[in-house]
Design goal:
This protein is of the alpha/beta class. The chain folds into 3 domains: about 130 residues, 3-Layer(aba) Sandwich (Rossmann fold), CATH 3.40.50.2300; about 170 residues, Beta-Lactamase (2-Layer Sandwich), CATH 3.30.450; about 150 residues, Heat Shock Protein 90 (2-Layer Sandwich), CATH 3.30.565.10. The chain is built from 13 helices and 17 strands. The strands form 3 sheets. Strands 6, 7, 8, 9, 10, 11 and 12 form a 7-stranded antiparallel beta sheet that branches. The relative contact order is 0.05. The C terminus is likely disordered. The structure holds adenosine-5'-diphosphate and magnesium ion. The site of adenosine-5'-diphosphate has 17 residues, from helix 11 and helix 13.
Length: about 575
């Protein structure tokens, strides 16, 4: 707290002997000044915490009044000294009070009251500067978007404002890998506290991220569960009735000695606890002292501000991550649609080529053959005509076969019947053609699956079947398909000769065109829809192809999306 400087300013002190005597006993350092310049020097040299009480002889009031506005400061009290005989005084608003120096009792009473007033004023000044500091911290907190920097600001502000030696922040999380959560009544047991930041002025801390259960027996857990702050004078001597104990692990590792502790919950405006601020070892002149009730009050409100700022910054970070995920997803979709477009184009080119190379060419040659018939007829070359007609017949049959093949390729996708139906048909044909038994087990409905998932599953399964037919030498295959609300799992197991998946070479683009799209293509397809593919096989052990695809929940049909 600041000091009171008592100053008496008068041309002569003769009339004020009683007052001066009392003033000097109350304030031994009281100054007597006769010169305005000297007074000015003293007043402008006041420290931030000082308060000056200036007693002015009423005869000097007129001389000083024009100057008073320049000293319009909270920490200067102008007190006019009057005598019983003094005529009416014109006292301006800058004057704090008038003291009539009639008798000793009056003077003593006045000075006693003044002391109280000054104490109040000093207290107010201290509070004002605290409020200012608080305001600055609040502004900094709400402006900081970066969570890590925000945590730093919070812990540093708490340490500074309470003169603590060190501090730690823990956040409430749902699990060790979670980033943040909030705690409400009844959440104990399901949530954890995660250490996120520590500062210490005396030692360097390099602690790893660690999580603790939230229990009422620990100081931090107590703050989370009860939502109350707690002040401990000696961490190693906590009164039994508090019902908490101090975790000495940190002291043990670092050799530090924790004594006074102040723990406060970071509670947002909805009373949800985001975490805990724990301050240790309040210091005064290099000695550790207990935290004071004022520290507790200040930290509680700071923790509240910190909670709101932190919540904002964490939400902001979550949102950014979400946006990033959307961006990636979008990019994937773009890739996917590009591939689909390309595939369509390739398909059209292939059909055009098939028609050009097959039926179209045959047609031209048929027309030529008809020309030749005419010549044979004109020359009555019946043998040659018969042969040419046989050839024409062959050509027409070939043409009919080619056209049927093209039509077959153009028929609607087997998937139009639904994934399960299409697979059943596929397996039936596969078994009939290869003699390999297929056991098809499935759970869940295929109706709600998105088409890109259905197409991926179908292509992966048919490709796996192609490989089994071509390479495995298997006698039976088991296919297990589980369609769930969040994911689809597929397992294709054969009892064939197996192979070493690591040594299978990557196919060149040329190879891919020759055969199916291969194991690499399967993986690519699966990863494109954010799924995972795993192949488990070794020579002599058969092969297991496992894939898991996430199901993205979209609005279901009939749901009012616009509302
Ligand atoms: N089910 C299987 N059983 C045995 N070997 C397999 C099986 N699936 C794949 N392979 C082996 O992996 C190789 C790569 O397969 P893939 O990428 O589909 O190319 P391709 O089938 O054109 O050879 C095959 O050549 C084969 O040696
Ligand atoms: Mg293959």
């Amino acid at each position: 707290m600041g000091n009171l400087k008592a100053i008496m300013y008068s041309g002569s002190f003769k009339e004020y002997t009683t007052f001066l005597a009392i003033l000097k006993t109350k304030y031994p350092g009281a100054m007597t000044l006769t010169d305005f310049g000297a007074l000015h020097t003293v007043l402008t040299g006041l420290g931030e915490d000082d308060v000056a009480a200036v007693f002015i002889d009423h005869r000097l009031l007129d001389r000083i009044t024009p100057n008073l506005p320049y000293y319009d400061q909270e920490n200067i009290l102008w007190i006019v000294l009057a005598q019983e005989s003094t005529a009416l005084l014109h006292v301006g608003p800058q004057v704090f009070d008038v003291l009539t120096c009639g008798g000793a009792i009056n003077i003593q009473r006045f000075l006693k009251r003044l002391k109280k007033d000054v104490a109040c004023r000093l207290r107010l000044q201290a509070l004002e500067s605290e409020v200012r500091e608080f305001y600055t911290i609040g502004k900094t907190l709400s402006a900081e978007k970066d969570t890590k920097a925000l945590l730093e600001t919070i812990i540093n502000a708490c340490i500074d404002i309470t003169s603590a030696d060190g501090g730690t922040i823990y956040l409430v999380v749902n699990g060790p890998d979670d980033k943040w959560s909030t705690f409400r009544e009844g959440d104990a047991g399901s949530k954890l506290l995660k250490f996120v930041i520590a500062r210490n002025r005396s030692i360097n801390i390099d602690m790893e991220e660690l999580t603790l259960p939230i229990s009422r027996e620990s100081l931090s857990g107590y703050a989370v569960i009860t939502g109350l702050s707690i002040r401990i004078d000696d961490a190693y001597d906590i009164p039994v009735q508090v019902g908490c104990s101090f975790n000495p692990q940190f002291d043990k590792i670092t050799g530090y000695r924790t004594r006074s502790v102040l723990t406060a919950p970071m509670k947002d405006h909805q009373d949800r606890v985001l975490g805990v601020i724990q301050l240790i070892n309040k210091k005064r002149r290099d000695r550790v002292v207990p935290f004071e009730p004022r520290d507790e009050m200040v930290i509680n409100s700071l923790a509240g501000q910190a909670a709101v700022a932190l919540e904002n910054s964490l939400l902001y970070r979550d949102m950014e991550e979400l946006l990033e995920q959307y961006r990636i997803q979008n990019e994937r979709l773009r890739e996917l649609s590009e591939r689909i477009l390309k595939a369509h184009e390739e398909e059209r080119r292939r059909i055009a080529r098939d028609i050009h190379d097959g039926p179209a060419q045959l047609m031209s040659s048929c027309a030529l053959k008809v020309e030749i018939f005419r010549k044979y007829l004109q020359r009555s070359m019946y043998d040659a005509l018969g042969k040419a007609m046989d050839e024409l017949n062959d050509s027409i049959l070939t043409m009919a076969r080619d056209i049927r093949k093209i039509i077959y390729d153009l028929r609607p996708s087997p998937l139009e019947a639904g994934l399960l139906k299409a697979l059943e048909t596929h397996f039936a044909v596969f078994s009939k053609e290869t003699g390999i038994k297929v056991k098809f087990l499935h759970t869940g409905e295929d109706g709600g699956l998105q088409y890109y998932l259905i197409a991926t599953l179908y292509r992966v399964i048919t490709e796996a079947c192609t490989n089994i037919r071509k390479h495995a030498g298997a006698t039976s295959v088991e296919v297990n398909l589980e369609i769930g609300p969040e994911k689809v799992s597929l397992l294709v197991v054969d009892d064939g000769k197996g192979f070493d998946p690591d040594s299978v070479r990557k196919k060149t683009a040329e190879d891919k065109l020759q055969s199916g799209f291969g194991l690499e293509g399967m993986r690519e397809r699966v990863e494109l829809v954010q799924g995972a593919l795993h192949i488990d096989s070794s020579p002599g052990k058969g092969a297991r192809v496992k894939i898991v695809l996430p199901v993205v929940q979209g609005p279901s049909e009939g749901e009012d999306v616009g509302a």
